[in-house]
Specification:
The protein is α/β, with parallel strands linked by helices and 405 residues long. It contains 14 helices and twelve strands. The chain starts with 6 loop residues before the first helix and ends with a helix. It binds 4'-deoxy-4'-aminopyridoxal-5'-phosphate and glutamic acid.
Length: 405
């Protein structure tokens, strides 16, 4: 134990000003309740409920046998970076060279690296809401300022070029977004991305961080990257990884594709912080990319079925408003009609976090309040769970919400 001083006075301002990740917190609370013997259904953490494909696991075993157990090059093994270059060409028709790829300990580290690489104190980062919980906190860590563009379910959570233009100031340095989006599942079409790219053409000092981690979980079309527009490609930093497409969340493998200069800067940062990511995960990543998308497409079929299942069940709950997400594996329904209502003990539901805690403690379903995604009128449900669990979870949610007065 530390000596009896106020812990806040010991920790850095950086950490004191940082919020805990709401996705991870709700997942932890769900696990704690389950450890007490409660049958909790977790729709909180966003991770595929599938196992890593066998051929990827085999590649990791072989990597061990082949003694890939030493430090790897900081930006990743050259053959993994070449496999990523090949993937970007074959799947996205984008030209990169391996000097433009930096492999990391997950897309999360890549996002954080890019922000630390570009943002000085006071620089503005434009983020459409809702956004993935960690975006704004990473900006805070870098002492940047998040500037939010609000959207709602009525516009399918999409921003317009006019909204983007209005958010830009002389201090704007970076725009960051995900498509398919976490937490809404929203997917920007090629035309919509082209219209945003036109705005960026007029503002040559703004970089664009394009988080494409859900690219393969898209139910409407092929994936479109904002990096496809040559006029802005140099300023686009693609972030992607293996967690979602190959059910490899625990392996910690992600990457950026960017201009040579930004890649070199990320390489330098990683060289002083984490070094190259796990050698075994990297060898497995090569095989994942080289063997193609069969397993991803199988997963996608299951997600498509569950999306329809959850959509039908959510629409049937009075007071809940939902749209049909086009990608990823989340729903982000509007639930503000429950604010001001009381639970059986007389506690008032004041916001989305209260509602998420109520659903956990009373309904035994773990979700995440929309406030940490930047929109308090919503909650996030992950449907990366079995069909039976989803049916039972939605039954419990309906019952618990129906008991609020
Ligand atoms: N971006 C988004 C939008 C995410 O939902 C996640 C969560 N997996 C990440 C990045 C981080 O992914 P990784 O597991 O590769 O760190
Ligand atoms: N990206 C996942 C989510 O949104 C994983 C948890 C996390 O890292 O926040 O739930």
């Amino acid at each position: 134990m530390l000596p009896h001083r106020n812990i806040m006075s010991i920790l850095s301002d950086r950490i004191n000003n940082l919020s805990e990740s709401a996705t991870l917190k709700m997942t932890k609370l769900g696990r704690e309740l389950a450890a007490k013997g409660v049958n909790v259904i977790s729709l909180s953490v966003g991770e595929p409920d599938f196992n890593t494909p066998e051929h990827v696991k085999e590649a990791a075993k072989k990597a061990l046998d082949d003694n890939f157990t030493r430090y790897s090059p900081v930006p990743g093994y050259p053959d993994l970076r070449q496999a990523i270059v090949n993937k970007l060409k074959a799947e996205n028709n984008l030209d990169y060279d391996i000097s433009q790829i930096v492999v990391s300990t997950g897309a999360k580290q890549s996002l954080s690296n890019v922000i630390l690489t570009l943002i000085n104190p006071g620089d503005e980062v434009i983020i459409p809401t809702p956004y993935w919980v960690s975006y704004s906190e990473m900006v805070t860590l870098a002492e940047g300022k998040s500037v939010f563009i609000n959207t709602s379910i009525e516009s399918d959570f999409k921003i317009t070029p006019a909204q983007l233009e209005a958010a830009i100031t002389p201090k704007s340095k970076l725009f960051m977004f995900s498509s398919p989006n976490n937490p809404t599942g929203t997917v920007y079409s090629k035309d919509e991305l082209a219209a945003l790219a036109k705005v960026f053409e007029k503002h040559p000092n703004i970089f664009i961080l394009s988080d494409e981690i859900y690219e393969h979980i898209n139910f409407v079309d092929q994936h479109e990257s904002i990096a496809q527009f040559p006029s802005i490609k140099d300023r686009v930093i693609i972030v992607n990884g293996f967690s979602k497409a190959f059910a490899m969340t625990g392996w910690r493998l992600g990457y950026i594709a960017a201009s040579k200069e930004i890649a070199a800067a990320n390489d330098k940062l990683q060289g002083q912080t984490t070094s190259g990511t796990c050698s075994i995960a990297q060898r497995a990543g090569i095989v994942a990319y080289e063997q193609g998308l069969d397993t991803v497409n199988e997963m996608k079929k299951a997600f498509a079925r569950r999306r329809q299942l959850v959509y039908d069940l959510l629409k049937d709950i009075p007071g809940v408003k939902t749209n049909l997400p086009e990608g990823a594996f989340y729903f982000f329904p509007e639930i503000s009609s429950f604010f001001g209502k009381k639970d059986a003990d007389g506690n008032i539901i004041k916001n989305s976090s209260d509602l998420a805690l109520y659903l956990l403690n009373v309904g035994h379903v773990a979700t995440v309040g929309g406030d940490s995604f930047g929109n308090d009128n919503y909650i996030r449900l992950s449907y990366a769970a079995s069909d039976e669990s989803l049916v039972e979870a939605l039954r419990r949610i309906k019952e618990a919400l129906g008991n609020l007065r």
